[in-house]
């Protein structure tokens, strides 16, 4: 092996031996079934808990968190929120967004599957089907901070955010009594005819037997 | 009708009683022109004196005494329970008892194994497979944290723990093997329950003013320490014990709450292997609820961190703290090593998830049960800064000579604690050791929080009998009888004619009780008793029983289509005695040595522990043992047994009975083609194909506890919780077994108001308990206290505690007992801290300028947390780095000061 071959290998080994900061991973568990999901279908007025988790936190552990989650407030409504696993927690709401912050005053949070907050959504699309993305953005200030003052916020994309999941809401079926239109009257008549025909067939067959 | 049938042996010994035909024990076959005819092996029954226990129901070696609930209303309507102070035991002749280590208790057949670093789980499984060892329980999280494979394994059937350990130890990949020892709480006695009020005046161990007649100042000096620090909410102390009553009014605010878990959602939110583990886990019963199963752990937790200065009850060494509860005990009263290991695995897992666990309290132990696997796990805790504080034991022994574990593990994070009394002497029961026991701490008559369940039987319960309707379905073995205790009240008595007899054994069994469908653990058995028994020599044992019925089955047969099975369609039941008894056979004219019992047998039992016994005789003459079988019979085997003269009766009966213990169960035995011959002529035969000639009997016996001694002429209420789910059948029975020894007789026991119903848990009770179990949490609490006060390496903290002690006074000039250091002095330990100059600077988190950074300051910071300039709740004083946000970096600063009490004025 000559020197020209060795240099790239050395560089590669150096690169491999340099500890790389692991990505922070965010997940949602809809409906508290113990599984992470990236999509959900809701009916009109149906509610679900969305538990938001972070993974990939190294020692000495996270002591604070803060993020903003955006959604289409014509599709979903937030009816409850909780971050009681943190010693301090604050929520602030704005149009189509929820700001969450929390801090631990004694322990830290290390590793994977760390519960950040829980948000209860309700589907509010009255008719048709509408979808919305749940997108996570870093909040203002230093939010994801380790006990040794290392700040992890730079590991979160602040421009386009992190797409946590897509939620579709199916509007409620028509419950009012509509006035039949001429076309539908025709269909109704055809249906009645078909029903009567079938009934007649059944009765005829019965007589033949 | 099913009835309880107890085999009564004649006074002659087993060896002298039975004459077993000596026949060649070899397989043979003869050829014919058409096929091979297998002549079965003719076997003999085993006759050695070490036959497995046959005289069920047997009380276990370590009985548990039922504690009376003497509910006596006083003038104020409070309830006062009193039990005598613990006293040093003496032998029956009045001489002092010798201090002798007890035989270690372990689960035979099981072995804990630890593989060397680098051995993967796959390789480990392969190594275990090569030794025919099966993994009973894995400890994957512990393996993940330590890089070593831990496992609880069993060998092949019939392989003892010792054999398996020997086999595994030969594998170079195995670092250590150990028996699966059972540990007991290191408590001597518990007594008085008191009204719910402020009891600090009784807490001599924290502030000894001579209120108990002891030496003023013989305490751990908490008032002086409290001037420095009180609230230790920033540290977590793990209590591995019998669970904690986390709803106790003096503990509920000092419980650790798992921040990663959502209570009651049925999901393992933090993915630690346990669903809804809010305050800890239960490795003894195998669930996520560390609720108390006995009172011991609740008492220990209160010493560490019962809420202080709240105007009621007691105070812990830490006025506030966080207790992580780990219930590790099994219903039999032991905590086995696998359950302890699972608890330590949980602690290590949560530590690695960021929970600030600084100490483990281990108020339990066992003698000569060194376990290198457990030692490795405890060392792992030390490697992450967790002190392991363990009770030295209550056997009056010198641990330098007789080791008690886990206290005797020579590890840097293990602190071994002896018990002292209110005169600053070592308690009479305490173990000691000049090199093996680190220090002493108060352990005698310690008042703390207590878990208590009560059940007072009454009409309308699941079962209730006030003994006013006669026998009412009870089976009463003579001389049990109903007697009038007053003009209007009746009760069962074991001795209606006066005093009971020497060597009495008699049972009283309830009618069937339907417990099916009831919530497991929700029910208790209760009864009222008035008793005069020779203390510790004569007993009333209490059992719950369920039927175990043999059946004729088509699963196996020697001839025809059917055979008897002790356990149709499955394995037999633990802790049971069941069998069949033949109809009467006239052998009265048979000459000596002429009668022969013949039968075919196939199957297996747990060799050395469970056995099928064969007896003959009758109810009036008693039954003689002919021997037993406890080995595997892979094929149908003919047994031929000569019947002794004592069986040559005009109404002789044959019994086959299976007795089992609490270990492994197997399919049991199948029995077919039974006959009795006299000089070769058949006088009784049954191939199980025609009319049934046998009566079945059998019960599973679940031991619950005992009564001994005197109730002082008063009625006492006893109750105990039913944990065993196998008891919740539609045919359960309460059984009282009266046993006496060969000397001293008394009036005996009267039983009334016997019932089964819903228990009530009391969350506001306190009690005195004594033992190194109580001394240990004083030290554990001190570790937590110091960890909250001052951040330093664990080793320095331990050294600070053990080197700042006060002398322990000898009881007299002959008292040579010693510990490595003296009695804990918390104030001295705290005052020994040499604060760095930086620590004495202004506390930036001291918003209210009161000299400390406490919960009031936390409230101020919390209100501002997450805000930025321009917002109403922004607080510039909380924005320590002045970057316009009160965010995570400011929280780092606040955390560094939180808990400080020595702040300079702002």
Question: In a nutshell, what does this entry contain?
Answer:
The complex is a heterodimer of chains A (209) and B (906). With 209 residues, chain A is of the alpha+beta class.
List its salient traits.
heterodimer, A: 209 residues, alpha+beta, Immunoglobulin-like, 8-stranded mixed beta sheet, 4-stranded antiparallel beta sheet, 2 helices, disordered N terminus, disordered C terminus, B: 906 residues, Alpha-Beta Plaits, Rossmann fold, Jelly Rolls, 5 domains, 9-stranded antiparallel beta sheet, 7-stranded mixed beta sheet, 41 strands, 14% helix, 30% strand, Ice-binding_C (chain A)
Q: Per CATH, what is the topology of the largest domain in chain B?
A: Rossmann fold
In the sheet with the most strands of chain B, the strands line up as 21-24-39-26-37-29-34-31-32
**Tell me, what's the shape of chain A?**
elongated
Strand content of chain A: 35-45%
The largest sheet of chain B is:
9 strands, antiparallel
| CATH homologous superfamily title of the largest domain in chain B | Peptidase S8/S53 domain
The SS-based structural class of chain B is alpha+beta
Question: Helicity of chain A, in percent?
Answer: 10-25%
Number of strands of chain B: 41
Q: Which band does the percent of strand residues of chain B land in? A: 25-35%
Can you offer a commentary on this structure?
With 209 residues, chain A is of the alpha+beta class. Chain A has a domain at 25-30 and 38-148 and 162-170: Immunoglobulin-like (Sandwich), CATH 2.60.40.680. Chain A is 20% helix and 43% strand. Chain A is built from two helices and twelve strands; from the N terminus they run αββββββββββββα. Chain A has helices spanning 3-17, 182-208; strands at residues 25-30, 39-43, 47-55, 57-70, 76-82, 88-94, 97-103, 109-111, 114-123, 129-138, 145-146, 162-170. In chain A, the strands form two sheets. In chain A, strands 2, 4, 6, 7, 8, 10, 11 and 12 form an eight-stranded mixed sheet that branches. A four-stranded antiparallel sheet of chain A has the order 1-3-9-5, with no helix packed on it. Chain A is elongated and about 55 Å long. The N and C termini of chain A lie far apart (96 Å). The relative contact order of chain A is 0.19. Mean pLDDT of chain A is 78; it is low at 1-20 and 176-209. Chain B is of the alpha+beta class and 906 residues long. Helices cover 14% and strands 30% of the residues of chain B. Chain B has 13 helices and 41 strands. Chain B is elongated, with a radius of gyration of 32 Å. Chains A and B meet through strand 4, strand 6, strand 7, strand 8 and strand 9 of A and strand 9, helix 12 and helix 13 of B.
């Amino acid at each position: 092996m000559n020197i020209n071959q060795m240099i790239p290998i050395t560089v590669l080994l150096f690169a491999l031996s340099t500890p790389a900061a692991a990505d922070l991973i965010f997940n949602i568990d809809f409906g508290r079934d113990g599984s992470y999901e990236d999509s959900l279908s809701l009916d009109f007025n149906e509610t679900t808990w969305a538990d938001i988790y972070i993974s990939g936190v190294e020692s000495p552990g996270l002591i604070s968190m803060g993020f903003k989650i955006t959604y289409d407030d014509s599709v979903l409504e937030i009816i409850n929120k909780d971050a009681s696993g943190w010693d301090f927690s604050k929520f602030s709401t704005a149009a189509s967004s929820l700001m969450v912050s929390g801090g631990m005053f004694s322990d830290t949070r290390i590793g994977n599957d760390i519960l950040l907050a829980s948000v209860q959504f309700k589907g509010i699309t009255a008719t048709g089907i509408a979808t919305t993305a749940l997108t996570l953005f870093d909040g203002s200030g230093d939010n994801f901070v380790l006990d040794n003052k290392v700040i992890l916020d730079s590991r979160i994309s602040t421009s386009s955010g992190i797409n946590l999941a897509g939620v579709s809401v199916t509007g409620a079926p028509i419950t009012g009594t509509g006035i039949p239109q001429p076309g539908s009257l025709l269909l109704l008549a055809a249906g009645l005819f078909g029903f009567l025909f079938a009934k007649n067939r059944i009765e005829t067959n019965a007589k033949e037997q | 009708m099913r009835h309880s049938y107890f085999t009564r042996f004649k006074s002659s010994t087993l060896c002298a009683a039975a004459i077993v035909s000596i026949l060649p024990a070899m397989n043979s076959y003869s050829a014919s022109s058409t096929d091979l005819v297998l002549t079965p092996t003719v076997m003999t029954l085993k006759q050695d004196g070490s036959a497995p226990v046959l005289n069920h129901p047997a009380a276990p070696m370590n009985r548990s005494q039922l504690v009376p609930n003497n509910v006596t209303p006083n003038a104020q309507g409070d309830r006062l329970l009193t039990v005598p102070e613990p006293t040093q035991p003496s032998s029956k002749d009045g001489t002092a008892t010798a201090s002798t280590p007890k035989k270690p208790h372990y689960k035979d057949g099981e072995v804990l194994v630890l593989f060397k670093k680098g051995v993967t789980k796959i390789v480990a499984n392969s190594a275990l497979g090569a030794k025919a060892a099966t993994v009973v329980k894995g400890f994957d999280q512990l393996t993940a944290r330590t890089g070593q494979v831990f496992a609880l394994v069993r060998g092949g059937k019939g392989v003892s723990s010792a054999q398996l350990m020997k086999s595994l130890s030969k594998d170079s990949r195995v670092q250590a093997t150990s028996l699966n020892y059972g540990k007991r709480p290191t408590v001597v006695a518990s007594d008085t329950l008191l009204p719910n009020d402020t009891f600090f005046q009784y807490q001599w161990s924290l502030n000894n003013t001579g209120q108990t007649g002891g030496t003023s100042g013989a305490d751990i000096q908490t008032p002086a320490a409290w001037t420095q620090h009180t609230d230790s909410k920033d540290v977590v102390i793990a209590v591995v014990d019998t669970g904690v009553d986390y709803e106790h009014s003096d503990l509920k605010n000092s419980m650790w709450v798992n921040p990663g878990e959502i209570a009651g959602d049925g999901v393992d939110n933090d993915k630690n292997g346990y669903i809804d583990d809010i305050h800890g886990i239960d490795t003894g019963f195998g669930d996520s609820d560390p609720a108390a199963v006995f009172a011991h752990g609740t008492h220990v937790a209160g010493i560490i961190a019962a809420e202080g200065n709240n105007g009621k009850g007691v105070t812990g060494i830490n006025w506030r703290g966080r207790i992580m509860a780990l219930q590790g005990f099994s219903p039999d009263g032991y905590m086995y090593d696998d359950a302890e290991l699972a608890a330590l695995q949980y602690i290590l897992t949560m530590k690695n998830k960021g929970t600030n666990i600084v100490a483990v309290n281990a108020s339990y132990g066992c003698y000569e049960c060194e376990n290198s696997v457990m030692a490795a796990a405890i060392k792992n805790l030390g490697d992450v800064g967790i002190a392991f504080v363990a009770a030295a034991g209550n056997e009056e022994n010198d641990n330098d000579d007789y080791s008690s574990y886990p206290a005797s593990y020579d590890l840097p994070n293990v602190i071994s604690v002896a018990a002292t009394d209110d005169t600053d002497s070592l308690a009479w029961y305490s173990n000691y050791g000049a090199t093996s026991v680190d220090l002493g701490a108060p352990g005698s008559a310690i008042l703390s929080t207590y878990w208590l369940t009560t059940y007072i039987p009454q009409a309308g319960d699941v079962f209730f009998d006030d003994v006013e309707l006669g026998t009412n379905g009870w089976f009463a073995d003579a001389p049990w009888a109903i007697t009038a205790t007053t003009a209007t009240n009746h009760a069962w008595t074991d001795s209606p004619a006066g005093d009971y007899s020497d060597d009495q054994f008699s049972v009283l069994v309830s009618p069937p009780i339907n417990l099916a469908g009831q919530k497991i653990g929700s029910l208790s058995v209760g009864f009222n008793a008035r008793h005069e028994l020779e203390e510790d020599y004569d007993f009333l044992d209490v059992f719950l029983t369920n039927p175990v019925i043999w059946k004729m089955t088509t699963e196996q047969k020697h001839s025809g289509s059917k055979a008897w099975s002790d356990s149709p369609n499955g394995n037999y039941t633990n802790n049971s005695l069941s069998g069949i008894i033949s109809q009467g056979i006239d052998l009265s004219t048979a000459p000596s040595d002429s009668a022969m019992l013949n039968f075919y047998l196939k199957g297996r039992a747990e060799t050395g522990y469970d056995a099928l016994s064969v007896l003959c005789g009758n109810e009036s003459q008693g039954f003689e043992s002919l021997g037993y079988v406890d080995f595997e019979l892979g094929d149908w085997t003919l047994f031929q047994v000569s019947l002794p003269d004592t069986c040559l009766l005009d109404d002789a009966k044959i019994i086959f009975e299976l007795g089992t213990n609490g270990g492994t169960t197997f399919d049991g035995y199948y029995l077919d083609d039974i006959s009795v011959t006299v000089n070769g002529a058949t006088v009784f035969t049954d191939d199980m194909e025609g009319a049934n000639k046998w009566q079945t009997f059998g019960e599973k016996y679940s031991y619950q506890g005992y009564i001994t001694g005197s109730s002082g002429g008063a009625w006492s209420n006893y109750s105990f919780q039913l944990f065993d789910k196998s008891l919740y059948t539609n045919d359960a029975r309460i059984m009282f077994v009266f046993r006496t020894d060969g000397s001293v007789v008394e009036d005996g026991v009267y039983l009334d108001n016997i019932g089964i119903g819903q228990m009530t848990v009391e969350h506001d009770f306190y009690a005195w308990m004594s033992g190194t179990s109580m001394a240990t949490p004083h030290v554990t609490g001190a570790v937590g206290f110091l960890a909250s006060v001052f951040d330093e390496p664990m080793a320095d903290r331990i050294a600070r505690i053990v080197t700042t002690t006060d002398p322990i006074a000898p009881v007299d000039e002959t008292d040579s007992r010693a510990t490595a250091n003296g009695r804990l002095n918390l104030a001295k330990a705290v005052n020994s801290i040499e604060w760095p100059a930086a620590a004495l600077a202004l506390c930036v988190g001291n918003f209210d300028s009161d000299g400390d950074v406490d919960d009031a300051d936390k409230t101020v910071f919390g209100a501002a947390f997450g805000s930025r300039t321009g917002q109403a709740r922004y607080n510039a004083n909380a924005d320590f780095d002045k970057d316009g946000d009160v965010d995570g970096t400011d929280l780092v600063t606040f955390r560094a000061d939180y808990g400080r009490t020595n702040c300079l004025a702002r």
